[in-house]
């Protein structure tokens, strides 16, 4: 009898083909497990590498509007910085909009002179008080000039306020991080603040929210002056007469004329009301622009068959309108028209917005054909070699909020 005590019993009843398949599967599984471990190691290494890349390489901007891509103007301004810039993003990290974080890092990547810091107001509750700023905002500071500017998030992420307050809907209308931050950088690094003084005392208008923000981004500060009692301040870069419905006195216009005789700049924006302002009109006539009584219109370029709602012809020769490519990108409404008088000595007038040859003048008595300008610049050469400049717009509606808020119009580029 044979001794089988040391012989293992074969209890595997699987067919031979099944045994071979399972052996191959196990070898493949071991390979896959090893491959998975290797891939995990590679992913971890890549994440470590990416975390050390600059912000502009971490994220490719595939957004339709390229909201993360900084434009050539910004790049030029940052590239020419002579002073260090500190940008503080003040917000709870859990609430910070990722778009704001990303674009701030892009600024830092452009120059070693830009330093971006993220401030958690919960961990550092004294920061806002120390720097006289607020939460949910971006603080831009220039230690070299000692100037700073706070940009609230509400100026960066603009919403449709009507939809929000009337219907409870949160609808974004614009993401303007670059415009706001670049404007702030330009402001804090500039040693020459420009002052625009708006006249008061004649029922003048005030700038809309959109225009005010645009001026701020351009490093322009506004204030008021009443010419019936005050002189035009010495630091006035531009005197703005914005849609008065009462005429200036002769004495007030003498102050304006004297200011231009010293090389001053004046911007005259007419009211949309159907009226004449004799002293103001006479001042313009002295500078080569004859104001017409009535509304300027255009038979061939009107809007919805309303003659005095029209798209003016833009001059490709003038600096103000040269870069506007859209022939119908600017709209004028209820505008006074002007005829240029080029016979005056030492006065040079250039029109940058006008009717076409099919222009017309509308009055209560009817309409008559007349080609006119509705936007012009008059330059006076003074005896001392200085040049006084007069900028004229035919209607306040040109920069009315209801018009400049339309995304398909470019009125703000002209103003």
Question: How many strands, what sense, and barrel or not for the largest sheet?
Answer: 8 strands, mixed
Mean pLDDT: 84
How many whole angstroms does the radius of gyration measure?
Answer: 33 Å
Helix count, per DSSP?
13
Give me some keywords for this one.
4-stranded mixed beta sheet; 22 strands; 415 residues
Description:
Helix content is 30%, strand content 26%. It has 415 residues and is of the alpha+beta class. The protein has an eight-stranded mixed β-sheet with strand order 8-7-9-10-22-21-18-15. Strands 2-1-3-4 form a four-stranded mixed β-sheet. Strands 12-19-20 form a three-stranded antiparallel β-sheet, with no helix packed on it. The protein has helices at residues 16-51, 55-58, 72-79, 98-110, 127-130, 153-156, 161-167, 177-189, 209-217, 250-261, 278-285, 401-404, 411-414, and strands spanning 85-90, 114-119, 137-142, 147-152, 157-159, 172-175, 194-199, 220-225, 236-242, 265-269, 289-291, 295-298, 302-303, 306-310, 313-314, 332-333, 338-340, 347-354, 359-363, 366-369, 373-381, 387-393. The protein is globular, with a radius of gyration of 33 Å.
